Amino acid sequence: MRNTCRYWLPIFLLGFATVTVSAQSFRVQCPTTTITHPVATNLEPAYTGPGVNGAIKCQQISGGDGYSTMGDGTQTYMFSFGPLSGLADIAAGKPGTQFPNIFNTTFAGFQPGDPATTDLAGTTPIPVLPSQLTFGYNGAVGLALDVANTVNIYDIAPLGLNPGDSVLIAHTGAGVFPAPGPYDGTQTVLAANVTTFPSGITNFGFPASNNFTFTIGTTGLPDVNVSSTATASTPRALDGHVDPRQIMDVGVMNGNIPAPLMAIDEDDEFFLTLTNVGMIMRPDLFEQHTVHFHGYPNASSFYDGVPDASVAINIGASFTYYYLAPDAGTYFWHCHITPPEHLQMGMVGQLYVRPRQNRVPTGTDLGTALKAQQGDNRTKCDSTADILCSNPMPASANTNTGATGVAQIAGGMYAYNDGDGSTRYDVEYPIQIHGFDPNFHFVGMTFNPEGFSDMKDKYFLLNGRSYPDTVTPGPLYTMSSDGSNHFSQPLSAIINIPAGKRALLRISDLDVTEYQTLASLGIPMQVVGFNAKLLRDQAGNNMYYTTNSITLAGGESLDVILDATGYTAGQVFYLYTPNLDHLSNDAENFGGLMTEVRIN
Amino acid sequence: MRATNMKKTIFQTHLLLAAMVAVTLLFTVSANAAAPGIKGTTFNLVAAPAYLNQPDGQAVYSWGYGCAANFNPTFAPALSRSGFCNVMQVPGPTLIVTEGTPVVVTLTNSLPPSAGNTSILFPGVTLSAFTDGTPGLLTQEAAPGATVTYRFTAPSPGTRAYYSGTQGDLQVEMGLYGALIVLPATASVPSNCTATGTLGAKNLAAEAAHGEADYRLSQSAYDHPDTCYDREYLFQFSEMDPRIHTRAEAQVTATAGCVVGAAGCSLNVPTEPYHPAYFLINGRSMPDDMDPNYATEYPHQPYNGDPHMHPGELTLIRVIGQGRWQHPFHEHGNHVRILGRDGNLILSSSTSTLSYEGVPATPLAGPLQFTTTTTPGLAFDGIFYWTAKGLNWDAYGHNPTSGDPLATLACTPDANGYNTGDPTAINYYEWCADHFKPVEKVPFGDVAGGGPATLPDANLFTNGAWYGGSPYLGPDATVRATGCSTGQQANGPGLQCGQSGSTPPSGTIANSPSSEAGFAFMWHSHNEREITTNNIFPGGMLMMMLVDSREYVIDETN
User: What share of chain A is helix, strand, coil (3-state, %, to 5)?
Assistant: First the structure.
């Protein structure tokens, strides 16, 4: 280990050295426009035909450590991701993914440990209920107005100013630097690179070599020629620069299980910034973290998150992953550094992509809309030319028009681009299966050697919780070793379905030791998708099947629809594991992998 | 082991691993896979003991099938590295046969006398009446020193498992398993898989243009026009509990030379509780699995797991679960279309037909999976490919303003959007919609800027052994991104070759930026504790799949 330190120290120092020059270690990226989305929009446009529409979506997460609370009350140490954007949404059990206009904002009111610190302050008795959540900021944590690009006013060329730009003038006062002066303030550039000044305009006393003029709000000021200390700068802007204090206040020991939820729509460009805040409890480890977008078709090796095959971000720095949203489906994500360790320790999260079909205008035939997708090579599915596409036109579609006779309803939501409305749902619940081996977590916290082959999970988790915590509404909090409470498990696993409605369960499994079975003691499970693909054969026949249990390995996902037609409000069913030894919370022999389906 | 030692051990293992990889690379530029085996109609096999090498330095006592001393098999595919088939290997020899032909497999039991009888089960195969051997519970067996003969007609095409049918809890654990590959009869290979003008033929032309050989056993996996393939790899997953092997060895040693049938001439090895510590692909743990086929370091583990492919190539993966556990085999990079299981093609119940490259057939109905569970005794065949489709940036790093002709290659989309017009082009099968689209806001090297993303300073991240040196595919693109290529510098005089702050560091170990620069994807068990070798990470069921640019010659010989 000593060797590692010696190796890393110079690089670490080098990282800090670069801050002052050009690069900053922590930063976020969320452009408002791109080549693909040249016009800034902050909503999902309707899908009306071939081409990329969608929007830009951004999210920031921390990579570090934290604690969670198991069903028997045990505090468990984790290597984990936490939210650094969408804090209020994550606390409310929603995705932390945001449009740029929400993401690119600043907030000054953070307390260390937020949002839990703020939310828990007014709640007695705790636990906090969803209705008691008061923390409302969903932008990126840490975003700060950039340190302006400041030059001496005698040489403003590096600013590259153009007429109409704003320029910040400072230190125009007489006397000793940094005396403020009468021309200080934000001015609008009238002309740049000029040699002659328009009639009636002077450059207010700055030497002609400045070659620019600007307006000034006050008049009658004498020309000053004391500007040897005067500076000009471009106005401060949100360009990804961050204030590391906020990052550390909120990001440290802020681990969540599951890691922050992400949700994007097909055609979105997704910018995910991973900020590595370090693991406070393991100062001996100089661990990188990564994000592997598990299951992305035609993934890029560079953004695949496998450290062996790509790059991994060091402590004290940020890396932004970029993807154009892949085909709709239930994916998931996790760290890919030393997977048997980092996944077991809790660095696992949920991610799903919503289909274009959601954006089809009301009244449009869904089959016709899917037919329109065949007009774009990127979105079409031709079974005779592409063996890896999964949603060909449904067998029921009209061969000429594609029409299936199923029209889009207002607010219609679907798991996939099915063209026939068969994956429609009213409410959706991401459910992630996981397991914790308390022995492994203990040795992981206490610098002890970790054995892999005899890893044995003792806590069996749905969204990071064991029964009965699975049916606790609102975020669970855990006190960390920094003495403050953090929202450790924000996502309840209660499945509320209005009577007569359809619920989509986006089930993923990131257990690292064994297969897990989940059974529905009530409403049958209709499996419509597997591994983020619609279950449909190449002839267009839906291969959905109905069952009362599904079995997944770590690294698999599956889409289930529970149809509450014929059920009545007040009914409660259980979703539980028939792996009966998994119905336990370590020594407690009842709990584990179980939650409730409530008809309401 | 004391607390502080473990991380050090792991760290040293990393170093050791890096060193091993480096040493390996000294001997072989690359170690690729194919689906090697022995081909014919008559196979004289033997079951015998030997030691398997593991990357932690252990030699694990095991049993395996091998070739009888007087049997000179025909190795397939033709590899320039000499194939060998010793009297014991794990997995057993891959038996390659052709559908409809009579096959004779003789098995001689050369296991220690106390191991008792042994046998081979061929699930899904109808055997002819036995003429020798000893009746056993599940099949005819070979007594110690004796021989049994299995005769059958090769069934439908596809990949199947074979394994011991005698005391399987011990004998399969000890290594008595292998693969049976049934190829379609020549007349049954669908015409589109052989015809000129089809994508398969174009891929062959592309391979030939760059001096690559064809290592396929056939041209289609099944008698179906959508099962054409361009490359194939066979992966057998199994695990070992070293305690069982150690006990078996101790008891075999204690009973050495005993008389078969005499009191005490038997083994009593507990096979439960089961705590495997070695997790194997083709009998090897990572990184050994990425060493060449028939590498002399592994006299009893001849088969590797080191898949390579070019963009757009249809890659057939033949996967068998051996051993006794299921393993979620996760293929990074794309989904796999499951074609069939145990040699049974999965077809739609629909009566309609689809026209695959002009050949009508019943549509496929196997699922698409990014995690393909391996199940004991079950084999499946699947098709995988990788293209840069939908990335929204030019994975080849083309730069329209460059002076380097390789940076300005044309991309002419075919009916599906790919550049397939000229099979000799380096960017054959490029996804044209993203041609010339930059990924990075900042231009660097000879790669255009203006894209949506900005990389952090290269000093802020750590790169991996299989990192190709840049976000781009191919040695030319990587050299242009990280260094200077001829006639470039189109991005302006302010940029210096290889010195841009946005340029990731290059010079990685296993995927040379200057010669290969492929896109590496990890293919591994997603029961992540199984990517360890006897508690050491990395290891176990893990291999790196490389998508290589066309100018990199994939030599599956190694």
Answer: 15, 30, 55
Tell me the nearest-neighbour CA distance from B461 into chain A, angstroms.
4
Q: Rounded distance, CA B525 to CA B371, Å?
A: 9
Is the link from the previous residue into B287 a cis peptide, with omega within 30 of 0? Answer: yes
Task: Label residue A523 exposed, middle or buried (CB < 10 Å: 0-12, 13-18, 19+).
Answer: buried
Using DSSP's 3-state secondary structure scheme, residue A161 falls into: coil
- CB burial string A405-444: b at 16+ within 10 A, e below: ebbbeeebbbbbbbbbbbbbbbbbbbbbbbbbbbebbebb
- Cα-flanking dihedrals φ and ψ of residue B390, to 5°? 85, 5
Give the chain B residue whose CA is nearest to the CA of A457.
B529
pLDDT of amino acid B493: 44
Nearest to B550 by CA among B303, B62, B203: B203
Mean pLDDT along residues B467-494: 72
How many CA within 13 A on the CB side of residue A257? 35
d(CA A116, CA A121): 8
User: Domain locations in chain B?
Assistant: 389-517
Count the alpha carbons within 13 Å of B243 in the hemisphere toward its beta carbon.
10
| Percent of chain A scoring above 70 in pLDDT | 85
Task: Please report, for residues A260, A349, A476, the alpha-carbon distance to residue A255 in angstroms, rounded to integers and kept in the order given.
Answer: 9, 11, 12
Domains A2-145+240-356 and A425-599 share a fold: yes
d(CA B289, CA B160): 21
Taking the CA of residue B404 and the nearest CA in chain A, the distance in Å comes to 24
Given an 8 Å threshold on Cβ–Cβ distance, is A555 in contact with B437? no
CB pairs under 8 A between A and B: 298
Identify whether the C-beta of residue B99 lies closer than 8 Å to the C-beta of residue B184.
yes
Give me the architecture of the A2-145+240-356 domain, per CATH.
Sandwich (2.60)
Minimum-distance CB partner of B390 among A312, A378, A513: A378
pLDDT, tens digit, 9 for 90 and up, residues B41-81:
999 999 999 999 999 999 999 999 999 999 999 999 987 78
B520·A308 Cβ contact <8 A: yes
Decide: helix, strand or coil at residue A368. helix
Q: In sequence order, what are the residues at sequence separation of 6 or more whose Cβ sits closer than 8 angstroms to the Cβ of residue B5? A: A449
Q: Which sign, positive or negative, has the C-alpha torsion B24, B26, B27, B29?
A: positive
Query: CA–CA distance from A200 to each of A117, A203, B505 (Å)?
Result: 58, 10, 56
Of A304, A340, A377, the CB nearest to B417: A377
Copy the structure tokens of residue B423. 């099979």
* CA pair distance A333, A296, nearest whole angstrom: 10
Residues in chain B closer than 8 A to A347 (CB atoms) = none
Question: For B266-314, how does the pLDDT look when each residue is reduced to its tens digit (9 = 90+)?
Answer: 999 999 999 999 999 999 999 999 999 999 999 999 999 999 999 999 9
Closest A-chain CA to B413: A377
Minimum-distance CB partner of A15 among B226, B459, B532: B459
Pick the residue of A18, A35, A452, A545 with the most B CBs within 10 A to test the interface with B by mutation.
Answer: A452
Position B485 scores a pLDDT of: 55
What is the dihedral sign for C-alpha A414, A415, A421, A424? negative
Tokens at residue A43, please? Answer: 């909503």
A425-599: CATH class: mainly beta
Q: How far apart are CA A37 and CA A31, in angstroms?
A: 10
ipTM of the complex model: 0.92
Contacts of B388 in chain A (CB under 8 A): 298, 300
Q: Tell me, rounded to whole angstroms, the distance of Cα B355 from its chain centroid.
A: 30
With CA atoms as reference, the chain A residue closest to B356 would be: A384
> Domain residue spans in chain A?
2-145+240-356, 150-233, 425-599
How far is residue B522's CA from residue B542's CA, in Å, rounded to a whole number?
7
CA count, 13 A, side-chain hemisphere, A229 = 13
d(CA A143, CA B394): 30
